[in-house]
Structures are given as structure tokens and as C-alpha cells.
Amino acid sequence: MAMKRNGKSPASSESDESVMFFRDVSLGPHETRLRFRLIHFWEAQNPVKKTLIGLEMLLIDEQGTVIQGFIPPGRIKKYLPEMKRGSVYELINFYGSKNKPMYRVADHIATVSFAWNSELSVLHDIPIPFDEDRFRMHSYEDFEANCDLKGDLYDVLGHMKLVDGQALTERPTIDEAKLATTRHIMVHVQSHEGPVMKLYLWDQAATDFCKKFKSYENTPTVLLVTAVNTKRLGGNLALSSMSPTRVFMDYDVQPTIDYFAWLSSNPEIAKQVSAEDAFFECTATIDDVVHGSAWYYIACTGCHSKATKGANSLICTNPRCVKDTTAGVAQYRAKISVYDSSEQGFFVLLGDAGFQLTGRHASELVSSYFEANKDKGPDHEVPVPEALISIVGQTHKFCVKVTDHNFSGNTRAITVTKILPPETSSPTKGSVDNAIAATSMEAVQTGSEVCGPSKSRGDSADEESKRTFDSVDPEKVKRARCEK
């Protein structure tokens, strides 16, 4: 058997012409034949200069080996008219270039680059079977390990929990006009019983998702997205689509079919939640400030976690705080009941959210009370101030946070992280209902990117508020009637 350039022996021969398998492709020029199925191709752009780098491809041979392909920009017009996803081709002559270190879509060390003498032709009668696709599914742990490394682009397979902040209990509505402006859709996806991950689909991937989602008669639940980049946004893992990203749902490919079957045989999994904190908007009217529990707490001046009494000073309860002792400062931790036209719920105001509603800091209100009541000792609990009581009856758009804690026990108090300007009209129907559904139906809600965590307090303060309000029975607070 004749040896070809680079010392590679032919994998098979027909009429003295060699056919090389992808596993034998090495770096350097090759005067031989390749046979492969074209899985996918896309334009590679320079993100800074906005110029075309070339046409990239994902190829699979008859042995199921996947390799990346590349056509320089000056040669694209020559080959593009013959290129069709899913077709099988023969390529004569190519150059084995080194696989790029960033944003790889294949494990192979080499890339099949079309050279000056490359010849591409379509194979119509194919006696040898070729796999239609090949995926590189990875787990949450793998995504965490590769976060921000800009190396391999892996595929994610799971079931959708939310589409643009909407649970799948009712078919989500995708606003195409909004999509044209924002250019992205955010999906919360959970792989088997792992943590819920935020998946951002951009540009073409978002458009493909929208078209495919709407094409299903029944609401699709299973999602496979290829070639996602892992990033850390706000300290949390996030997946982001890239140029080679493709989108598949319930019955599109074998992995989604298999996952759909697994999910159908494990219906309780769809109801489980293991998620990082998530945020969404809710428009509601304030019914009352809940009495019977403190509306503030004494916080560490450094991290705003709860401070407790020590022998001679206050001690921060946050083990990660650099302050062993602290002077202490009053921070909001007020529970309010809210309602819209159909439902009632409970929100907890912490830090800046309380200040945005009242216009006064909790420390200022506490200090004013003790200045006016000098006979009260430092352990006296300050009653709910008029500044808080005056917010009853106001309608606001709340940015609220839902955590894993909201899905355990009877907890229904949801943390408010930000207040947007008051609505001029009546509350939107179903806004509070959606918030309550997030806890009762075990679904994490998310929404506008403006709903970020409050920067005025630490997570320990939030945990303290959860412990405080766990024992409150939400049915004991009477909902006010709306006047027509």
C-alpha cells in the first residue's frame, strides 16, 4: 500500500485513489481524498473589526469522527453554491491546519482547510452510511470547570423551566418585536436533576429558537443547544450561544427524543428546582405592612449581615466578613402584603428597596425614634414608622428575587431587590399570581436584566429575613378589596 505525504497510509482504496479517515488527518498538506457529511457551516467574524474571517464547518466521516473545516474568505464563492447542510461530499486535496485554541467545536487537533487546489464534489449514491450528527453534551460540573476559559464550545441538553421569564405551565408568548430589539432570548434549562442554568440565545440562535418553538403544536419542553460558551455573570454560571450554535427541541434529533422519553417517565423531575437566585418583575399594590415582627435589623457596617451582641461589642455573623466587631447600623427588613387583581402575596423589603419606597434610610428612622423617646432603652423595638405605613395603597413595579428557599416548606415571602417608578394604572392582572406560582408550582421566575441583586446588603441578611418570616402564615393576612 502506497504511503502518502506526511507518512500517512490510505484508509481504503478505490481505483488506486486513497480515502483518508479523519482520525488520520495530521498537520500539513494532503494530496488525498476525504469523504464526509457536512453537519453545519457558519460565517466566522472578527468581533472587533466586524470583518469576515472565513467560513467554518463541522464535518463527520463514515467512522463517526468529527473535525472542523475552514474555507478562507477568498474561496467561499467557489464552494458555497454546492454546500448544503446534511449532504455528503468528497474533498480532494486539503491542508491540515492546527485547530484553533479558542471556541473549538471539535476535539480533533487539526482543521481541514480548503487549499488552492482543493476540489469539492457532492456524492449522491452513497453505499457507506454516515452519521447525521454528533453532539458533545456536558454536565453542569463540566460547564463550571470550563467557565470563562474560552476553549471548547460544548452542547447542553435538558428541559426548559422558563422562556423569557415565563413558566411552561402555560405556553409562553415570545414577543418577536421585542426580540428584534433585544436580539436575545433567555431560557432557564435544567439537565436531568442538576442545577438550573441560564442560557442566553443571541441573534440567529434566538431567531431559530423562536421559529422552532412556535412550530410545535404542543409546548415543547426538551431543548438541545450546541456550541455554547460558558461565562460567569454576576457571580453565577451562564451559557451563551455562539456563531456555530444550533437549536433542537423535543423530537428533532435522537438525543432530544431520548431525553423526552426519560422526562416523560420521570414527571416529578420537571417539578423539581435546584437553581441559583433568579429575578423577575411584578407589578402590585401594597396592601399592608405586616406587624408583629421587626421591620429592621441591626447590621454589620461592612457587609450588612446581621450583627449580634457580644461581650463588649456587636459581632458580625458573616464568617467571610473582615470585621470581627462592628458598630452596627439599622437596615430595612420589612414584610409587606401585596395584591393585584387576582392574587395576594408577601414581599420582604431589604436595604435600598425600603429606601426607594420611603425616601428615608432605616438608620435615620430608628435614630429619630430614639431621639424623640429618650426614655426607651437600646433593646426597645421601634414600632413600624409612619414612613412605612404611608406606602400602603401605592402601586409599584417590583423587582423580586426567588431562591431555592422559596421552594421548601411553606415559605411564601419573596425578597424585593429594587423598586421601579409607580404604575399610573391599575396592577397588571396575574403579576402577583405569577410570583406566587413561582413558589407553589416550583418554577424559578426571571425577567428584565434591570432586576439585579441589591448592592446594599449581604446574602446573610437575606437568609436572616427568610428565617424570620418562615413561621408567618400567609393566610392570616386579609387581602384588601379593589374599588372599581
Give a description of the structure.
This protein is α+β, with helices and mostly antiparallel strands. Helix content is 18%, strand content 34%. It contains 10 helices and 24 strands. It has helices at 76-79, 140-145, 176-182, 203-215, 254-265, 352-358, 362-372, 386-389, 431-440, 459-469; strands at 12-14, 17-19, 28-46, 51-60, 66-71, 88-98, 110-113, 119-122, 154-163, 166-167, 184-190, 196-202, 222-233, 236-241, 247-249, 278-289, 296-299, 307-309, 314-316, 325-326, 329-339, 344-350, 395-402, 413-420. The chain has a 5-stranded mixed β-barrel with strand order 3-4-5-7-6. A hairpin with a 2-residue loop joins β1 (12-14) and β2 (17-19). The protein is elongated and about 100 Å long. The relative contact order is 0.10. Residues 279-422 form the Replication factor A C-terminal domain. It holds the Pfam family Rep_fac-A_C. InterPro entries: NA-bd_OB-fold, Rep_factor-A_C. Residues 443-484 are annotated as: Disordered. Residues 456-484 have a biased composition (Basic and acidic residues).
